[in-house]
């Protein structure tokens, strides 16, 4: 972003020096806020001047008030509404709560448009003409398509956690919203990291934005004490129990999968620990209940997937434990950002297997620091060599002998099960021709319709296909018949035909076709003879022929009645 301007951090003063109106200062004072955070100190004056902003700050640094205070002050003076887009329902609920505390005393109403809630209730809230919309991209697009919300009066647009929205695949919805809102709006974009997709979005849709960066992208909070534990995966649960004995306050445990979260939470509950789980398989109400119980102290342990890694404003979390390393190194920053909030210290411990050295290096490159590593003695490495490609074991472990299992080598493709053969006719020496059950060959050309059939033919129909309908000698959908040896062990005579390769089967088909044609001819001759014989009978005799009439009886039986006879 060549057109962006970087600001320098000066001496942080009170909110009164940032250009905030007196009415809003009273609300801020009533909330117990006295000193702005670094991101608030830099972003609020720039936003009050009407500039577009790109803010880079980690979670827990006060970003909500950094964009909330300027937006409320502008909406109180200028006609229009504000729109805040967030990636998850949990984030939307927290932002709505914070903006409600700020805007409520000023008479500014807020409504949330998120998935998992009844859309009818949201439509009722929209009819009250709220001043601020807090929405997730998917549900907002639903309302736009329904015609229940219009964005032509949006004067302030906020994109919070923009990098997470792109990671979750909301890029098309964001682009659609940006095309719907007015072009003369003010846009405030906040993100913990600045990937290429977010930078390109800012270049396309923001007007000479000011870049506000209180800490380098990917940096972690200075008050978080971080440590890596190297241990085998099978020993992780035992180490969790050990750490729960050392830390007596709230513990947030992150796992990679939803199944893993459920499994670990149940094991902790069976061990008489007050544990809850939160992941996307739970309904919104269940997730809210888990968060409420964790905030109130009803649950001491919360096992979560990355759905809870961002924006969860939960104070007094003593330990963040990464039971599994995240797939994305940036998620590590968001995970450990749940502790050491509001100027308090915190601890972050991550479990890693000996073969995850590369993942640890990626995290260190992102946060620009080396992490202390402790090796848990369990037969694995006693020291973690960063310069080597592999972990050096403490003592050589005898390799298990490799057992090679003998497997049969298939020289040919295995045929289908053998079926009873078909005896066609007898040769000159009274030996029957026996043909094996057909084996289907590869379909490389043609189909059953090319053989003159409207449906899948039976075996006899395939055999009776005339010569002029036979495809060339290439592989087709026809079935292949091979002669076999009869039960007596005598060789089977083979009918050959020099015109075809493997002429035995073609000769047999021609034979069967000839027999069918002869049978048809016999039927036609017999029918013609019957007609000729009937035509020679006297007319009186034909009139006296019996006729069938339907009886009027209830059961509908057929009876014969003879007419014309005395």
TrEMBL record:
Biased composition (Basic residues): 557-566
Short sequence motif named Q motif, residue ranges: 13-41
GO molecular function: ATP binding; hydrolase activity; nucleic acid binding; RNA helicase activity
Positions of the UniProt region annotated as Disordered: 406-432, 464-497, 518-566
GO cellular component, one term: cytosol
Domain named Helicase C-terminal: residues: 236-384
Alphabetical list of InterPro entries matching this protein: DEAD/DEAH_box_helicase_dom, DEAD/DEAH_RhlB, DEAD_box_RNA_helicase, Helicase_ATP-bd, Helicase_C-like, P-loop_NTPase, RNA_helicase_DEAD_Q_motif
Domain DEAD-box RNA helicase Q per the UniProt entry, residue ranges: 13-41
Gene3D superfamilies in the record: P-loop containing nucleotide triphosphate hydrolases (3.40.50.300)
Pfam hit, one: Helicase_C
PROSITE patterns for this protein: HELICASE_ATP_BIND_1 (PS51192), HELICASE_CTER (PS51194), Q_MOTIF (PS51195)
Domain (Helicase ATP-binding) ranges: 44-212
Keyword annotations: ATP-binding, Helicase, Hydrolase, Nucleotide-binding
Family stated for the protein in its record: Belongs to the DEAD box helicase family.
Record-linked PANTHER family: ATP-DEPENDENT RNA HELICASE RHLE (PTHR47959:SF13), ATP-DEPENDENT RNA HELICASE RHLE-RELATED (PTHR47959)
Name listed for the protein in its UniProt record: DEAD/DEAH box helicase
Organism: Candidatus Falkowbacteria bacterium HGW-Falkowbacteria-2
Organism lineage string: Bacteria, Candidatus Falkowiibacteriota
């Amino acid at each position: 972003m060549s057109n962006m301007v970087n600001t320098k951090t000066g001496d942080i003063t009170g909110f009164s020096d940032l250009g905030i109106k007196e009415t809003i200062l009273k609300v801020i004072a009533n909330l117990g806020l006295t000193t702005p955070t670094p991101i608030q100190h830099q972003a609020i004056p720039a936003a009050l001047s009407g500039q577009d902003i790109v803010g880079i700050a980690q979670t827990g640094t006060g970003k909500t008030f950094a964009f909330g205070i300027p937006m409320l002050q502008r909406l109180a003076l200028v006609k229009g509404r504000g729109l805040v887009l967030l990636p998850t329902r949990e984030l939307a609920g927290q932002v709505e709560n914070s903006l409600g505390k700020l805007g409520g005393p000023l008479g500014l109403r807020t409504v949330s448009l998120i998935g998992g809630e009844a859309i009818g209730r949201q439509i009722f809230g929209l009819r009250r003409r709220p001043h601020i919309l807090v929405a997730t991209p998917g549900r907002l697009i639903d309302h736009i398509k329904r015609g229940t919300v219009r964005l032509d009066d949006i004067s302030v647009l906020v994109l919070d956690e923009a990098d997470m929205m792109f990671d979750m695949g909301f890029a098309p919805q964001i682009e659609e919203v940006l095309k719907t809102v007015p072009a003369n709006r003010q846009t405030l974009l906040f993100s913990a990291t600045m990937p290429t997709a977010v930078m390109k979005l800012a270049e396309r849709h923001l007007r000479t934005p000011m870049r506000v960066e209180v800490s380098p992208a990917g940096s972690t909070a200075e008050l978080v004490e971080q440590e890596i534990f190297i241990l085998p995966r099978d020993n992780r649960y035992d180490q969790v129990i050990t750490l729960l004995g050392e830390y007596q306050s709230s513990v947030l445990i992150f796992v990679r999968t939803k199944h893993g979260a459920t499994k670990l939470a149940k094991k902790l509950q069976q061990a008489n620990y007050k544990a809850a789980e939160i992941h996307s398989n739970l309904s919104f109400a269940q997730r809210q209940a888990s968060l409420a119980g964790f905030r109130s102290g009803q649950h001491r342990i919360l096992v979560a997937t990355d759905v809870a890694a961002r924006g969860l404003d939960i104070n007094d979390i003593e330990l963040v434990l990464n039971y599994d390393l995240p797939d994305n190194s940036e998620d590590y920053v968001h995970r450990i950002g749940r502790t050491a909030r509001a100027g308090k210290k915190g601890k972050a411990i991550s479990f890693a297997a000996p073969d995850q050295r590369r993942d640890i290096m990626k995290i260190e490159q992102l946060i620009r620091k080396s992490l202390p590593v402790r090796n848990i003695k369990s037969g694995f490495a006693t020291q973690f060599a960063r310069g080597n490609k592999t972990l050096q074991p403490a003592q050589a472990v005898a390799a298990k002998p490799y057992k090679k299992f003998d497997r049969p080598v298939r020289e040919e493709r295995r045929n289908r099960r053998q079926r009873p053969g078909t005896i066609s006719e007898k040769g000159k020496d009274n030996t029957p021709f026996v043909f094996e059950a057909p084996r289907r060959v590869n379909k490389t050309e043609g189909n059953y319709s090319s053989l003159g059939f409207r449906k899948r033919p039976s075996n006899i129909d395939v055999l009776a296909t005339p010569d002029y309908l036979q495809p060339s000698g290439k592989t087709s959908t026809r079935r292949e018949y091979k002669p076999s040896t009869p039960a007596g062990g005598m060789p089977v005579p083979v009918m050959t035909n020099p015109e075809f390769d493997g002429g035995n089967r073609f000769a047999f088909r021609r034979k069967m076709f000839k027999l069918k044609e002869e049978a048809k001819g016999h039927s036609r001759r017999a029918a013609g003879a019957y007609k000729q014989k009937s035509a020679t009978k006297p007319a009186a005799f034909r009139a006296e022929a019996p006729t069938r009439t339907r009886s009027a009886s209830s059961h509908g039986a057929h009876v014969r009645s003879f007419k014309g006879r005395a």
